[in-house]
Amino acid sequence: MRRINREFYERSGADGFIVSSRQNKYYLAGLYSSRGYVLCCQDEMEVLVDGRYYAEMKSRYPQENIVLCPDHAAMMHEINAFIRRSRISRIGLEGNYLTYHAYQKLSDEIDCEAVSVDLDGLRKIKDSFEIESMRKACRIACDSLQQILPAIHAGMCEKEVENLLVFTMKKNGAQKESFDVIVASGLHGAFPHAKASDRVIGENELVTIDYGCRVNEYCSDITRTICIGHCSEELHRIYDMVLSAHDAALKTIRPGALCGDVDAAARKVIEEAGYGKYFPHNLGHSIGIEDHEEPCFAPGSQELLFPGMILSDEPGIYIEGLGGVRIEDDVLVTEEGCEMLSDFERKLIEL
Amino acid sequence: MRRINREFYERSGADGFIVSSRQNKYYLAGLYSSRGYVLCCQDEMEVLVDGRYYAEMKSRYPQENIVLCPDHAAMMHEINAFIRRSRISRIGLEGNYLTYHAYQKLSDEIDCEAVSVDLDGLRKIKDSFEIESMRKACRIACDSLQQILPAIHAGMCEKEVENLLVFTMKKNGAQKESFDVIVASGLHGAFPHAKASDRVIGENELVTIDYGCRVNEYCSDITRTICIGHCSEELHRIYDMVLSAHDAALKTIRPGALCGDVDAAARKVIEEAGYGKYFPHNLGHSIGIEDHEEPCFAPGSQELLFPGMILSDEPGIYIEGLGGVRIEDDVLVTEEGCEMLSDFERKLIEL
Q1: CATH code of the domain covering residue A60
Q2: Minimum-distance CB partner of B95 among A95, A97, A101
Q3: In the listed set A123, A156, A177, which residue is the last one of a domain according to the structure?
Q4: What is the DSSP letter of B276?
Q5: What average pLDDT does this structure show over A297-313?
Q6: Running DSSP on this structure, what letter comes out for residue A143?
Q7: Number of domains into which chain A is organized
Q8: Which of A110, A145, B77, B277 is most exposed by smallest CB count within 10 Å?
Q9: Does the structure show a pLDDT above 90 at A51?
Q10: Where are the beta strands (DSSP E) in chain A?
Q11: Same-domain check for residues B48 and B178
C-alpha cells in the first residue's frame, strides 16, 4: 500500500482524505472497484470494502486495516469512527471524480468539514512496478500489431482491423484494450479522433492505428500510420516530417526539462515546414492507470519533468481532403534522459 | 431529436435544462460524445458541439439548431445567450453525472439559478428504434454464443472464452461488448460478479457467461450457465430451480404490474425450495444506452411497468464451495404482456 505524501495535506489544508475514485483507490491500496473507500490520515490508513473484495484484500494485505462494510450505512459508520479516532476536522473528498450528488451526500453524512481535493498528482511519478507493467503493456501492443500486419489488406474494413488487434492483444496476455481503438484510413486519417468504422480500406492508402492495452490496470498508448501499397509523395513527405518532429521531441526529454519545451521542439519542425496549422493538438500526455493523465506536453506548459514520469510523444498532421499521419510512443523519463517503452518500426511500413 | 416532457419541468421547478451526460445527449439529440451540451426549454432546443461533431450533426439534423463552439468560453457564451433569450430563471444541471467540480464551475458561470436534476427517467420507455436496436443486440449476442459453443472445452481458461465471444460479437456486427464479460467457472460461479480470469475450466464444471453487446449504442445483457460434460445432481436441481424462477417472473411481466411483484414471483420459487439466502441480488434491471438503468425488479419496488420498458429477468443461486447458476434474458413489456428479446436455449446445455 502507498501513503499520501505530506505535500497533499499541506496544500489542501485537509488532515484526512476519503479516496473514492477507482484509479486512486487502486494506486493507494490495490483496490480496483467503483465501490468502497480508502481512508487516509497522516498516521493511519483504512480500506472499506464490501463482501466481494474483503477476502481477497485481507489475504493480500494481512497487516493492513481492511474493514468489511456490507452496505452504505456501515461505510458511513466506519468513516465517522475514523474521523473521530484520528481527530480529523477537515477531510478531503475527490471533487474531480465524485458526482455532485455523491459529493453532497457524503459531505452531509460526515461529522466534519469537507473540502474538494484533486489527488491525481499522486500518480505522476511511476515506481518500478508501474514501469514494468507499462513496459509489458507496450510490448504486448507492439508484438500484437506486428503479428496482425500480414493480415491487413485493402478491401478489409477499419472495424475488422480493430477487432483483430484487440483479440490478439488479449490473446497475448493483455487484460483489455486501453481505450476504443482508432483505425482511420485514407481521408478518415484527417480526423484525429476518428473511430474504427465500416469504411473499407483502399489500395495505396495510409491507415492510422491508435491503440494500446492494459496490464495490471496500467495502459499503453501507441500509434502507427502504415501504408497499404504505396502512398503519394506528399504523404511520404508528411510522414517523414512527423517522424522528425517525434525525434526532435525525444531529444529534449530529460529530468528538469519543461513540458512546454518538449512540445515546442516537435512543433518547431512542423511549423518550419509550413504545416503548423495542421497539428491541432498537444504533443503528448501522461499515461498510467488512466490512458490520459497529467502533466501534458502542451504549448507553454511550465511543468517540470522528473525521472519516473511516462508520457506519450505523438505529433500528427491532419489535412482534410488528403488524410493524416500520427506516430506515437510511450516515453519514460530516466535519470539521464529518456527511454522509449514502445519498440516498433517507426519508418513508414508499406504493406 | 426528442423533447423533454413537461413533467420534468414541473417536477424539478426548472424552466430549462443543460444536458451534459453522454447517454442523455445521445437520447435527446443523437450526440454520443463526452463534450458538448444539449440546451432545452419548453419552446426550443439547441445543441452545442465542437469541431469534431459539427459537420456530421448539421448534415443529420439540418432543421435543428446546431451551434459550433470550439472551446469552453464559446460554450458558456452560447449557454448564457440561450438563458437570456428563453428568459430562463432556473436551469437544471445533471447533478447525478456532472462531477462536483464541473457542477460548481458550470453553476458559477451561468447567469441564472442552477438546480440539480435527474433526467434518466426520460429513457425508461423505449421507442421502436430503441427496441429494434436492442433486439438486434440480443440477436447478435445469442448467435455469437451459439457459434462459439463448439470451441468451449475443458482445459481452456475463462479469459479465452471471453476473448473469443467478444471477437465473435464484433465480427457479427456489434459495436463492442456492453460491459466486461463475466466468465465464471466451477467454484468461481459462486461469485455473482467474478471477472473472466486465468482459471482453467475443468471437466464436468458449470460455466456462467454474463455478456452482451451494443448496437446503435444500445445494450443487450444475457447470461447462460452451461456445463462442460455432466454436472452433479445437486447443480442440476439448482439449475432447474433458477429456470423455474425465471419462468415464474416472466408470467407476471405485463403493463400495470409492480416491479416488486415480478421480483417476488421469482424469489418465491427459490425461497420455497429453501435456497432464498443464496439469491442475494435483485431479479433484474432496466437496460438501454446503459447496461444498468432504472427501474429494477427489486424486492418491494412500487414502480409500475409500462409498454416499451425493457428489463432483465436474471435469477441466480450462488453457493460458496459449490458454484452457481444464473439465467438472464432481456424482456420487453408489450401491450398484452411481454416478449423475450433474447432467444437462446434455456435448458441446461451439456457440452
Answers
A1: 3.40.350.10
A2: A101
A3: A123
A4: G
A5: 98
A6: H
A7: 2
A8: B277
A9: no
A10: 16-19, 37-40, 45-49, 66-68, 90-94, 113-117, 182-185, 205-211, 214-215, 218-219, 222-228, 284-286, 293-297, 310-313, 316-319, 323-326, 329-333, 338-340
A11: no
Q: Looking at beta carbons, which residues of chain B come within 8 Å of A180?
A: 176
Q: Could you tell me which chain A residue has the CA closest to the CA of B96?
A: A101
- Strands (DSSP E) found in B96-217: 113-116, 182-185, 205-211, 214-215
A10 falls in which pLDDT band (50, 70, 90)? very high
The dihedral through the CA atoms of A164, A170, A174, A179 has a sign that is positive
pLDDT tens figures, A140-173: 999 999 999 999 999 999 999 999 999 999 999 9
Tell me the nearest-neighbour CA distance from B174 into chain A, angstroms: 10
Are A182 and A296 in the same domain? yes
Could you tell me if A321 lies within 8 Å of chain B, comparing CB atoms? no
Confirm if B20 and B94 have CB atoms less than 8 A apart: yes
Mutation site, B24, B32, B56, B99, interface A, largest A CB count within 10 A: B99
Domain CATH number, residue A238: 3.90.230.10
What residue numbers bound the domain in which B52 lies? 6-123
Please indicate, yes or no, if residue B345 is contained in any of the structural domains. no
Burial of B287 (0-12, 13-18, 19+ CB in 10 A): buried
SS3 B306: coil
Tell me how far apart the alpha carbons of residues B119 and B97 are, in angstroms, rounded to a whole number. Answer: 10
Residue B193's pLDDT is 81
| B101 at A interface, C-beta within 8 A | yes
In the structure grid, which three cell numbers stand for residue B14, read together? 426548472
B243, B332, B227: which is closest to B288 by C-alpha? B332
In the 3-class helix/strand/coil scheme, how is B144-155 assigned residue by residue? HHHHHHHHCCCC
H/E stretch holding B340 reads: strand B338-340
Work out whether the CA dihedral A280, A282, A287, A292 comes out positive or negative.
Answer: negative
Q: Please check whether residues B133 and B247 belong to one and the same domain.
A: yes
pLDDT along chain B (351 residues), means of 10: 94 96 97 95 95 88 95 97 97 98 98 97 97 98 98 97 98 98 96 91 97 98 97 96 98 98 98 96 97 97 98 97 97 98 96 90
Residue B62, preceding peptide bond in cis (omega within 30° of 0): no
Task: Please check whether residues A237 and A106 belong to one and the same domain.
Answer: no
State the sign of the Cα–Cα–Cα–Cα dihedral B105, B110, B114, B116: negative
Q: CA B241: distance to chain centroid?
A: 26
